[in-house]
Amino acid sequence: MIQDKAKDIKEIIEKDIWGSIQEFLNWGFHYGEGSNSIHITIGLLLLLTLAFMITGFVLKWVRKFFTRKMDQEDKLKFISIFKFIKYVVYLVVILLTMSAAGINVTVILTASAALFVGLGLALQELFQDIIGGIFIIVDKSLRVGDIVEVDGKVGKVFEIKLRTTRALTRDDKVIIIPNHKFISDIIHNYTQNHKTTREKVNVGVAYGSDVQLVTQLLEDVVDGQKGILKNPKPFVLFEDFGDSALLFSINFYINDSFSDPRIKSSIRYEIDTKFRENNVSIPFPQRDVHLYQHQLGSDK
């Protein structure tokens, strides 16, 4: 008797309750028969909604996992990346749902292939910039405040985005640098290791000048200059014997490479003053020009 009741309950669950649920889930739009039929049902739409919810949750968890050690500012930059990934995943889910409903998505993909190829080529550099931005943020190869030289322009970085980096040049102009340059080109970063950099000013003096006096004067010039570090100590190098001058350089250290041109300009002013006071001449470039006179004879 107990077995009969259990059997009846099982039949009620299978036929009445589960059958009603299946009937409800299968209710919807049905078109055609056989392999060419299309079925858009409540169950399919619920599955699509569930897939969207799970996708959003998984991507949100992945984003939090990868950005857990980043600053809040860097975390915000990755929101747009994961939004783009989410839309791509949503598109895949929709295509899978359409395929499950009986719609031939192969035709749609084939018709869109040329469009996708053209779009991919057009956005190739954009994707390179975004990938470069991700690398910059993740491996910290560039930071706000770094002084970089790109295509002969020196600038101080004040903003790093996923697609571009912005820097302020020494003449107060903003340069916008595509991030792919930081992974494809050679970029000079003056302050990657530390803020202190070694700079130098070159000068030539006339042959016959007292080289010891020149060395002493150059050392005196940088000794009292504002912005030049006392340690490491500045030093003078006798670079070479030039075509028309003895070539020297005064080497010094500063902790603000961005103001480098002003410091060098002050040093040059002071060098000119010191050399004039001590009768040390800076020669003009010299060239030897030889003139040959040809005499033309006459036939007799």
Overall, the morphology is elongated
Biggest pleated-sheet summary: 5 strands, antiparallel
Q: Order of strands in the sheet with the most strands?
A: 6-5-4-3-7
Described by its quaternary structure, the protein is: single chain
Structural class, please?
Answer: alpha+beta
Total DSSP helices: 9
Cα radius of gyration in angstroms? 38 Å
Give the H and E element order: HEEHHHHHEEEEHEEHEEH
Query: Spans with pLDDT under 50 lasting ≥5 residues?
Result: none
Count of distinct strands: 10
Topology:
Elements: H1 2-25, E1 28-31, E2 38-41, H2 42-66, H3 72-77, H4 79-100, H5 105-122, H6 124-139, E3 147-150, E4 153-160, E5 164-169, E6 174-178, H7 181-184, E7 188-189, E8 197-205, H8 211-223, E9 235-241, E10 246-254, H9 260-277
Helix pairs in contact: 2-4, 8-9
Q: Notable features of this structure?
A:
300 residues; alpha+beta; 5-stranded antiparallel sheet; 3-stranded antiparallel sheet; 10 strands; 49% helix; elongated
